[in-house]
Amino acid sequence: MRRKMSAxxxxxxxxxxxxxxxxxxxxxxxxxxxxxPAFSGMTGAEVARRILDANGLHDVPVExxxxxxxxxxxxxxxxxxxxxxxxxxxxxxxxxxxxxxxxHALQHRDAYGFLVLRHKMFPVVNFASxxxxxxxxxxxxxxxxxxxxxxxxxFSAAVAFQLVTLPVEFNASSRAKDILVQQGFIRNTEERGxxxxxxxxxxxYVAATLVAVMNLLYYISIFLGQSEE
Length: 229
Prior knowledge:
This protein is mainly alpha-helical. The chain has helices spanning about 1-35, 45-55, 85, 90-110, 115-140, 145-180, 190-229, and strands at about 60-65, 70-75, 80-85. A hairpin with a 4-residue loop joins β2 (about 70-75) and β3.
């Protein structure tokens, strides 16, 4: 059992390293393609507005937000929010990210299954994510298996949320690529850049999910090891 726990611990460390690498990868890819203007000359904000309007989402605003790579779709406010480096830029990186966030708005409009599920899970997961570390630590400190098991249960909810997030992100990227090509925002020669940017961003979610799964397995191995003693 101890050997299995050690192996899992090493895998958790490796997954964390992968996550750090993924963060550097997405920043490096974004910076590289930020230096390449799209032939359309349109900014991220302009592309987002056109995509939303073309799909009947005239009431969804496109708003700038401070920070870098802080882009997101807010389902509560029904607003696409773009970082300033995306909102005002006409680069391939900028319009790729803008189209991706519009992909989430389209998912919301279409009641995309995984997005609906993700929204329903959020309140529970938000609570579980805050409580799980406390229960796990309490279980270890007080050697209380029942508390530790409860911590694992709450942590499992957070892992499930991560898993549901993956198809949401991949689907939004797929929509973004199709829209950028079909509506003529990019040339065929620019598709490679769009794919690079969106794939790098998606990989960060894959890495984060892998870390969450490995941590869950590690906690389960601890629980099983303590149960056998």
